[in-house]
Design brief:
heterodimer, A: 52 residues, mainly alpha, 2 helices, 58% helix, B: 701 residues, two-stranded antiparallel ribbon, 25 helices, 3% strand
């Protein structure tokens, strides 16, 4: 197949996939909470102890 | 204890093990690096010993730096942070230990086989097939251990660091397996299944993504965990980290062809590589900005927190390297920078500045925690930082200046259209002072490292109590964070599949069309495969690591045509397993060196290059005139190549050893006639001369 045509189709397909994926992500509330994950990692550790 | 609480212990011992390994191998990688740097400044540092020459030690240096120093540091950081991020002990203690000891065995095998000359002749993928299989097995152990931990996690939500670890594990497996596929002909030697242009493409898809998925994504994961921990502040923008991750893993995989600009790689691939390399600038800087801005409002504390300085400098070097990378990918800039020391400066800005400093910062943070003590001296950390920084800057600046100087000298033509510096050696001699400055920079960097080792030793010795594992209390309910909507970042399997798809898109689009390499070959041009003796010589060329200083690819640029002859074609290297296009010209290109000089010239030049060119910095290869050609393997070699599609006839394979001996005899007789006194019957030098004389002579154009 003509390479330019092939690449153009691939590009269109990929772009459409990305836009679709983004719209899905927004509508399914993937971006609802963008604050707690960043804070959560700060309060993990850390006592020292012996295994029983 | 409350019945609803259950105690969990993290496996800190494995982290301590990987930290020790990191420090030991860092010493080895740095020391070998300094030695090869000195060999370029002062050729007698090759010590006239086969296994100590530049061509054999340079792969040892790169492999030790990438897979031993950075590798062990990555594993230490991933195993430490993953347990805490997922709030659970690692999946299996036995797998952790198997991973640790397996990886050290691989490194030891590399440290023995590479100086002995067992190499596949592909940069950063030099290790031969049995070690490649071992790497695959150990990586699978690592993957099972990591994904098992992920499966058993008590924290449902996966933090951004975990995403980068997932992408690393999956992509490195893919890269390693595809690039290393080879057919063995003996216990320690094999030929790659890829050939010529196809091999070049697969190799740089691998090579560039070794940088991307071994030296970038795991380190970004570590950055996303350790920078907020060290600063005790959340990452500047979690939103940005989402964009950063997906854009980076999707775009990075396409960038490989920028290592092959102006070569005989098809144009559409070169263009694709350039476009994606330039796009890569955006997500890379997204990551840098995200890390640096985490320090926002706390900059005044940097003065009194020497460990912070390492992280800030690491991020800054990451920003510089990822700006310079896209810049060097622009074709016109690549035409000056490619094959020169500019590229060496570029990678060391990344390796010493970004990877090295991030590792040092991480170790200074981790070691007091893991040994329940305080750092011995903050002042020594400060000294380490400044020594290291001056070292990297000297290294980087000297190499960029050397690269641009040499690049411009190679291309300089006068008003009559003639080369201003027709003798290659002129362009080498000019930059030797810069090689000394580079070695000085490396020495300073190592001095800083020595201070760190002293500081860490003192710190560990001051830890009085017996070592223990960290403990956390958890609710009996395993899912700490299960009341939130089940976001994508809570589904490990779906997330991993999406990450794999992201790297497969670019991989398939670039590699699939070249699987049928003959589509790109002009059927009217026939290429004759190398004769048995020439092929034997080619294997010696690979063994000695000639490709690390000599390219075999002439670019379609005016000055290259003047200096080396017609541009290289796809057809010429179509039977090359592996391809030997090279990426650096410490010496001149060799693709058309065949028949340019008489056999006697090559004989003298290989034994002592100074006889021909008094200022040459090439090592002497006098052992080639002492060691005998191993005729017993030649049939097997040609047979493997025939099976891989090289058009040898059955008779050629059957008579390979006889043909080789006959051709060696002709070269030997010629040399004896011209006055060679030494006993050279059946010596390796004959095969090497046969190969060099065949370069550029195999295509009918």
């Amino acid at each position: 197949m003509n390479l330019i045509l092939f690449m153009a189709l691939v590009t269109l397909f990929l772009s459409a996939t990305f836009v679709g994926f983004y719209l899905w992500a927004v509508s399914s509330e993937q971006f609802e909470d963008l604050d707690t994950p960043a804070y959560r990692i700060l309060k993990d550790d850390n006592k020292k102890g012996k295994r029983e | 204890m409350d019945k609803n609480l259950r105690q969990n212990f993290y496996d800190d011992d494995i982290v301590r093990k990987f930290i020790f390994a990191t420090l030991i191998w860092a010493g080895v990688a740095f020391a070998v690096g300094l030695l090869v740097a000195l060999q370029l400044a002062y050729w007698p540092a090759n010590m006239n010993t086969a296994w100590l020459t530049f061509g054999r030690l340079r792969p040892l240096h790169t492999n030790a730096a990438i897979f031993a120093f950075a590798g062990n540091a990555i594993f230490a950081g991933i195993y430490h942070s993953t347990q805490r991020l997922l709030r659970t002990r690692l999946f299996s203690d036995s797998l952790s230990r198997l991973h640790f000891w397996g990886w050290q065995v691989i490194i030891l095998c590399a440290a023995v086989t590479l100086p002995l000359g067992f190499t596949q002749g592909k940069e950063y993928a030099e290790l031969e097939w049995p070690i490649d299989i071992l790497i695959t097995l150990v990586w699978v152990v690592f993957a099972v251990n990591f994904f098992g931990t992920l499966y058993r996690r008590r924290e449902k939500h996966m933090y951004v660091a975990i995403w980068f670890y997932i992408a690393t594990i999956l992509t490195v497996a893919l890269l390693h397996i595809v690039n290393s596929v080879a057919i063995p002909f003996s216990f320690l030697k094999s030929y790659t299944v890829w050939a010529g242009m196809q091999d070049a493409l697969v190799q740089w898809w691998y090579g560039h993504n070794a940088v991307a998925f071994f030296l970038t994504t795991p380190f970004l994961g570590l950055m996303y965990y350790y920078v907020p921990k060290v600063v005790n502040a959340p990452i500047y923008s979690y939103r940005l980290s989402i964009i950063h991750f997906w854009a980076l893993v999707f775009i990075y995989i396409w960038a490989g062809p920028h290592h092959l600009l102006y070569t005989s790689l098809p144009d559409w691939l070169q263009t694709l590589g350039v476009v994606f390399s330039i796009m890569l600038w955006a997500p890379s800087w997204g990551g840098m900005i995200n890390g640096l801005l985490t320090f926002k409002g706390r900059w005044h504390l940097v003065r009194s927190e020497p460990i912070w300085k390492f992280f800030i400098a690491a991020l800054t070097f990451y920003g510089m390297a990822t700006f310079e990378g896209p810049l060097l990918s622009i074709k016109s800039i690549s035409s000056i920078g490619h094959y020169t020391d500019w590229i060496i400066g570029h990678v060391h800005g990344g390796a010493l500045g970004w990877n090295g400093f991030l590792i040092f910062g991480m170790l200074y943070y981790l070691i007091p925690k893991l040994w329940s003590t305080k750092l011995y001296s903050n002042k020594l950390v400060e000294q380490h930082f400044w020594l290291g920084l001056v070292g990297v800057v000297l290294y980087y600046v000297s190499m960029v200046v050397a690269g641009i100087t040499q690049g411009l000298m190679w291309r300089a033509t006068d008003s009559a259209g003639q080369l201003v510096y027709p003798e290659f050696i002129e362009t080498v001699v000019r930059i030797i002072p810069l090689y000394w400055i580079r070695a000085l920079g490396g020495t300073l960097y190592i001095a800083g490292f020595v201070i760190m080792v002293y500081n860490i030793t003192k710190t560990i010795k001051s830890s009085a109590n017996s070592l223990s594992d960290s403990v956390i209390d958890n609710l009996k309910n395993d899912n700490v964070n299960d009341n939130k909507p089940r976001l994508l970042e809570g589904y490990a399997t779906v997330f991993s599949i999406l990450a794999l798809v992201a790297v497969l898109v670019g991989t398939v689009i670039e590699i699939y069309p070249t699987l049928n390499v003959h589509k790109y070959v002009n059927p009217e041009i026939t290429t004759t495969p190398f004769s048995a003796l020439e092929q034997e010589g080619r294997d010696l060329y690979v063994r000695e690591g000639c490709y690390l200083c000599h390219s075999q690819q002439i670019r379609p640029l005016v000055e290259e045509k003047l200096r080396y002859g017609d541009p290289s074609t796809i057809e010429e290297s179509i039977y090359d397993h592996p391809y030997q296009w090279g990426s650096k010209r410490t010496g001149p290109d060799l693709s058309r060196v065949g028949k340019k000089y008489p056999d006697m010239w090559h004989y003298q030049h290989m034994l002592d290059p100074r006889q021909i060119q008094p200022k040459s910095i090439m090592p002497s290869y006098d052992w080639l005139a002492k060691k005998n050609i191993d005729y017993s393997q030649i049939k097997k070699k040609l047979n493997v190549l025939k099976n891989l599609g090289v058009p040898y006839t059955d008779k050629q394979v059957q008579d390979a050893d006889i043909d080789a001996e006959a051709q060696a005899k002709i070269i030997e007789d010629g040399l004896l006639q011209q006055g060679v006194k030494e006993e050279i019957k059946g010596k390796e030098i004959l095969a090497m001369i046969a190969y060099l004389q065949a370069l550029g002579q195999k295509g009918s154009r």
